[in-house]
Write a structure and sequence with these properties.
Helix content: 40-55%
Largest sheet: 5 strands, mixed, barrel
Number of strands: 5
Strand order of the largest sheet: 1-2-3-5-4
Number of helices: 9
Structural class: alpha+beta
């Protein structure tokens, strides 16, 4: 079983990362959040899905995103495609808030999820918990999204920032204004 892969990014295309690990190239399916955050050299936490005629790897930079993905694919009727769509739409922290508030409408915004699926997912994921190590990141992400910035730009701007929520937002705004 592969727990993690560390290597250099060989190529990025259509939600996939080709990762060079000592001259072996692995294809990893990744969320859009992970896709936009990848550095030249990266460690990915990996989930393997092995079927009769298919072997697929899913890579995550954030352990909580992997935990969310792994929890979602255990649900009846939720496959890797829908789980990856949820991880592409919401950070694990935001998803926890959606569960806590039983926000069916927020979950229906995810491609491939209708009202019945949303209700079932919320009910079955009621016990989901993540390590809340990066509340600052999620709060800053939400605040900057509310200001109209795109999620992938925000995630890039937040990379490597530390401090209070206010300090992180202030520095991220400086970075975002330089890009625009």
């Amino acid at each position: 079983m592969i727990a993690a892969l560390k290597g250099k990014v060989f190529a990025k295309t259509d939600g996939k990362i080709l990762l060079d690990v000592r001259d072996v190239i692995y294809e990893l399916n990744v969320s859009m959040i992970t896709f936009s955050s990848v550095k030249e050299e990266q460690i990915f936490f990996v989930t393997e899905i092995i079927k009769e005629n298919e072997y697929t790897l899913y890579g995550f930079i954030d352990k909580n995103e992997k935990k969310l993905f792994d929890s979602l694919i255990k649900l009846n009727g939720v496959g890797p495609k829908v789980a990856l769509a949820i991880c592409s739409t919401y950070t694990p922290d935001t998803f926890m808030e959606i569960i806590k508030n039983q926000n069916v409408n927020a979950l229906k915004k995810v491609p491939g999820i209708g009202p019945k699926s949303a209700k079932r997912i919320l009910m079955e994921m009621g016990e989901f918990e993540i390590e809340t190590t990066n509340q600052t990141f999620s709060q800053a992400l939400i605040a900057l999204e509310n200001l109209g910035f795109k999620k992938d730009e925000i995630i890039k701007a937040l990379q490597g920032l530390d401090g209070s929520v206010e300090e992180v937002i202030k520095e991220a705004l400086k970075r975002l204004s330089k890009r625009g």
